[in-house]
Amino acid sequence: MTPVLSRARGDGRPAAPVRIVHLGLGNFFRAHEAWYTDRAPDADRWGIAAFTGRSTAPARVLAAQDCLYTVLTRAADGDTARVVGSLSRAHSGTDHAAWLASLADPAVAILSLTVTEAAYLRSPDGGLAADLPEVRHDVATLRQDLRAPVQTVPGRLMAGLAARRSAAGPGSPGVRAGLAVLPGDNLPGNGGVAARVVTELASRVDPGLAGWIEQHVSFVGTVVDRITPATTDADLEPAAALTGRTDRAPVVTEPYTEWQLCGDFPAGHPDWAAAGARWVDDIAPFEDRKLWLLNGGHSLLAYAGGALGHGTVAEAVSDARCRRWLGQWWDEAVRHLALPDGDKDRYRAALVERWRNPRIRHRLAQIAADGSQKLPVRVLPAVRAERRAGRLPAGGLRVLAGWIVHLRGRGPEVTDVAADRFRALAAGPPERAVPAVLDALDPALARDRPVVDTTARLCRDLEDAAR
Ligand SMILES: NC(=O)c1ccc[n+]([C@@H]2O[C@H](COP(=O)([O-])OP(=O)(O)OC[C@H]3O[C@@H](n4cnc5c(N)ncnc54)[C@H](O)[C@@H]3O)[C@@H](O)[C@H]2O)c1
Ligand SMILES: O=P(O)(O)OC[C@@H](O)[C@@H](O)[C@H](O)[C@H](O)CO
């Protein structure tokens, strides 16, 4: 029988001392930040302690193989494998004591997270959604006891930072406080978003902590790019064939990868630049390029392609109708991207190649989730910019129409933090549903007659094409 991955047998690298604590032990983190860390020349000094969201299974499976796992880089013509050893510890998210202790450790320099867009719990104005029951629960709990288990991501971050402040307090003068928070979710200004929800929560619980965070914690903005679909059982065998080891938790990803970072690391960081990451002074153009062209394009394929009956990105992008719609959306979006034309053209061409890779099975259902959180950042900025320029952007409106058709029951099943509200708004004839959904996304769009009429027409066209 093929032996299980094991450091004692010489697989991966020896576990490095923990200097990074990560929340969200998902596939993307393992194919991206942990992979860059493993490839950094100073990897032997930067171990990661990673915590799951809520489930205990990923931590258990990884711990049983010494926290080692295989990254299968899947090109159109074959796989290559790398055993990644940068995870030094894997914890269940339910182990709150370990979370607090890890962040109190003065050797820890970075708190990173990949928790999905929805988990930041933002209100429509971008601040913390303080009225949500789970946020109210965390505020009440933390006011009583800063070490008590909490439910939300902002609550967990705040509790961890409170533990760090206690460890660095006057009683422990030698303890270094400085820490960088490093989000890896697909949100514009993700560093600022994380800073805002955590500080707003802290202000409600312990205003002194909010001030301490401002003084000691830096929030780094990032753009992350590497298509990483959910692993299936069919991926276990190729991983074992390439490494000669049994791995119950391999990750499949594409060869293409990018990582832009912008911000300070008060207590240092691995030499990620040597592994291919790039530090930039202005991250906004890279965010727009990634979120509008890739993620916005993905959403178009998920909703419009899903309505046509496609199940994966590769299937949808092979459909000439979807490719025409993509081109239309991209032509609109790139007019508002502050990057050289050559860069935009290269990114577009690369995207089509990346998505055509038939060996990456990226399910449209995975991408379709949480449209209510994603469309406002992936599609609406370019739609608004086109309207300001006096144009009617049918490509962008088709993404919105696709989502409305999806909410009305076409394509993948609806999974959304606000599913009930948006499904109810999207019910009934398109003439009523379209302005109702647009109004919830942005009231100005619902007041814009040509936008409403065009979106309703695109909805009807898609529903006809889906029949
Ligand atoms: N998969 C990709 O191609 C990709 C690429 C770029 C960025 N991302 C970003 O990474 C995120 C995760 O993607 P993934 O592919 O790893 O998904 P995944 O399903 O493998 O992992 C999601 C992770 O988020 C955690 N999580 C979800 N809700 C949470 C909550 N309320 N509290 C704490 N943790 C929570 C889960 O526990 C899990 O660890 C995406 O939502 C996206 O923002 C993904
Ligand atoms: O993971 P999400 O839901 O933010 O978005 C789905 C995909 O568009 C996304 O995961 C991309 O694959 C990724 O952003 C590529 O870098």
UniProtKB/TrEMBL annotation:
SUPFAM superfamilies from the UniProt entry: 6-phosphogluconate dehydrogenase C-terminal domain-like, NAD(P)-binding Rossmann-fold domains
The Mannitol dehydrogenase N-terminal domain, residue ranges: 19-273
Catalytic activity, EC: 1.1.1.17
Ranges of residues in domain Mannitol dehydrogenase C-terminal: 282-422
Gene Ontology molecular function: mannitol-1-phosphate 5-dehydrogenase activity
Catalytic activity entry: D-mannitol 1-phosphate + NAD(+) = beta-D-fructose 6-phosphate + NADH + H(+)
Similarity comment: Belongs to the mannitol dehydrogenase family.
UniProt name for this protein: Mannitol-1-phosphate 5-dehydrogenase
Gene (name only): uxuB
